[in-house]
Amino acid sequence: MKIGIIGTGMIASSVVTGFCTQKTGHEFFLSPRSASKAKALAEKFSEATVCASNQEVVDNADWVFISLHKKDFDAINEIKFRKDHKVCNMSAEMRLPDLKNRIGETALLAHVIPLPMIVTGQGPILVYPEVREVGGLFEKVGDVYYANDPSDVHTLQIVTGMMSAYYMLMDEFVKFSDDQGITHDVSVKFLHSMLSAMSARAAAIENCDLIELAHDMTPGGYNEQAMTELMENGAIKAWRTALDRLLARLKGSKIE
Predict the structure, then answer these.
(1) DSSP string, the chain
(2) Shared-domain flag, residues 85 and 112
(3) Mean pLDDT: which of 25-34, 93-102, 120-129 is highest?
């Protein structure tokens, strides 16, 4: 399958890396807009080719993945799409009706939200609307979930906005262990093992009640003390506040 990539930022680069690493057999035609990243992908993967223009990308492709920053959306207006193109919008703030107005009628148009973990063939991939052909394409590089309506896309997209904050939290755990004299490599591996096991435990419980799981602890123990101190200092509430504010920001650019 021939896939064109318009925009080669972090997400688009991760997508190409994921597909190529998982040996899906697809051929990729890359936009020249982020020249250094496109060149790096082409040097790393024989399946990837850097094109001279966005129009050349589209002309070579059956599928087109659009991954542009909001400030670059007008670049799409200069590209001529074919009616047989299958288009996946990976631009967070691009609305499907707006994109359709820019590119005209195509065989398929869907919104797709992949995450950086796609580089290892892992993590959720959100697809809207429920286009099974799109899901079938992406199921080789992650766990596909279909959104029922635009509000679902908004909500789950906002949840993904907390990844950097989560990594910062992880870093605090590692720094604490390092400061106590634990070898850094051990600190990191121990933390990854613990967090992976915690997530797996919750995932293994049908209809898991996370609050109940949080209170599955020894009364008066370390877990209870830590949870109490964090709640009293507003640390837990701060995460919800951040989510609410991200949602308020996103509502200014609804996905429909």
Answers:
(1) -EEEEE--SHHHHHHHHHHHHTT---EEEE-STTHHHHHHHHHH-TTEEE-SSHHHHHHH-SEEEE---GGGGGGGGGPPPPTT-EEEE--TT--HHHHHHHH---SEEEEEE--GGGGGT-SEEEEES--HHHHHHHTTSSEEEE-SSHHHHHHHHHHHTTHHHHHHHHHHHHHHHHHTT--HHHHHHHHHHHHHHHHHHHHHSTT--HHHHHT-S-TTSHHHHHHHHHHHTTHHHHHHHHHHHHHHHHGGG---
(2) yes
(3) 120-129
